[in-house]
Amino acid sequence: MTDFSLLARLNNAHGPSGRESEVRKVLCDVLAPIADEITFDGLGSVIARLNRHATGPKVAVVAHMDEVGFLIREIRSDGLLKVFKLGGIDPMVAVNSEVEVKTRSGKKYTGLIWSNKPIPELTMDDLWLDVGADTREDVLAMGIEIGDSAVFATRHFALNDSGNLVAKAIDDRIGCWLGAELMRTLAHSSLQCDLHFVATVQEEVGTKGGKTAIEQLKPDVVIVLDVATAKHADAQSGTQRVYGNGPCLVVADKIALGHYPLLNFVSDVAKEQGIQVQRDFLAGGGTDNGPATMVGHGIAGLAIILPVRNCHSAYTQVSQNDVLNCLALLQQTITQLDETQTARLYSYY
C-alpha cells in the first residue's frame, strides 16, 4: 500500500500564494537526503536536482506549492475582518467555512467566514471573518495584522475505504507529492537525464514561479503537474477529464499548447505501459506550463493534470488510482527521456 503520510503533511501545511514557507520546509526536509542539490529562485520556488552528472537532457518536473486562500485586508472596530482572496475562490464556496489564520509570528487561530447576504448574491466584499474578537484592539492583541494569511482549515483524510483522498490543498500538493515521490523512487535508477523537481510559488496569482524558476533553470523539457475539476462523472458522456479515468494530457489551455511531439511521446509511453490516460483541454485557465515554455528560445512543455472534485474549496477530492497511474507514467517517461528522444522533440525539418 502506498504511503500517503507525506501528502497529508503537505496538505495540512499552511501555504497560500506568497506564504509557502511551511510547504517549502516539508519538501526540503524530505528532498535533502535524496537530491544532489537544492536551490531556490528569487521568489522562493524550490529546485531539487537529481543525477547532476548526466550528459543527457535537463528535465524539469514542475508543481506549485501554493494553495488558494486569503489575506487580511481590513480590521474593523467591531473585531470583524475583511479578506482579499488569493486565487479563484467563489464566495459561495467560502461562506460558512472554518479557516486557519496565521500571524507573522507563526501563531494560528481558528476563524469562521459568514455573511448576512443571501448566498446567490454574495461577493467577496460581503464576507466577514470572525476570530472571536469584539474590538480592533482584541484582534491586534492576538498578533493579527493586515497582510496576514488564512486558508481553509480542513485536515487531510481518506474518504472511508473508497480509494479517494480529501484535503483543502490537493491543488497542487498532490503535484508536489508526485514530484517528491518521483525523485525518491528514481534516486538509485540509471537515468540518462539531469532531473529537476521544481516546486513553484504563486501559481494561483499569475503563474509567477513557473516563470522565475524555469528562467533560472533553463531546462530542455518541462512537465507540469496540476489538477482541474472533473467535467463529468459519467465516462459515457464523451467528454474528457472524467474522474477516476486516469491522468489527463493537456492538448491546449488558455495560455499554452502542449508541445505536440512531447504530447505524442508521453501518449506512446502510456500506451506501451498500459497506463490509462485522457486527453484534455483547459478552456478557462492555464498552468505553469504557459510561462515555462516561453523561457529563452522556447521549451518543449506539457501539462499533466489530475481530475478532481470540488477544486478550490475546503474539500478537494482526488482518486488514489489516478495519482498512482500518474506516478507510473512519470517514472516511465523520465526513464526514457534521453538525448536522442529529446532531439526528436525539436526536429522541425
From TrEMBL:
From its record, what is one biological process in GO terms? proteolysis
Cofactor entry: a divalent metal cation
A GO molecular function annotation here is: aminopeptidase activity
Q: Does the keyword Protease apply?
A: yes
Q: Which residues bind Zn(2+) 2?
A: D171, E204, H312
Entry-linked Pfam families:
Peptidase_M42
Q: How is the cofactor bound?
A: Binds 2 divalent metal cations per subunit.
Xref: SUPFAM superfamilies: Aminopeptidase/glucanase lid domain, Zn-dependent exopeptidases
Instruction: Cite the binding residues for Zn(2+) 1.
Output: H64, D171, D226
Q: Which Gene3D superfamilies does the UniProt entry name for this protein? A: Peptidase M42, domain 2, Zn peptidases
Lineage, top-rank taxon, reads: Bacteria
Question: What keywords are annotated for this sequence in UniProt?
Answer: Aminopeptidase, Hydrolase, Metal-binding, Protease
The keyword Cell wall biogenesis/degradation appears for this protein? no
Q: Active-site positions, per UniProt? A: E203 (proton acceptor)
The record's listing under InterPro entries reads: Peptidase_M42 (IPR008007), Peptidase_M42_aminopept (IPR051464), Peptidase_M42_dom2 (IPR023367)
Q: Which family does it belong to?
A: Belongs to the peptidase M42 family.
Kindly provide the name given to this protein in its UniProt entry.
M20/M25/M40 family metallo-hydrolase
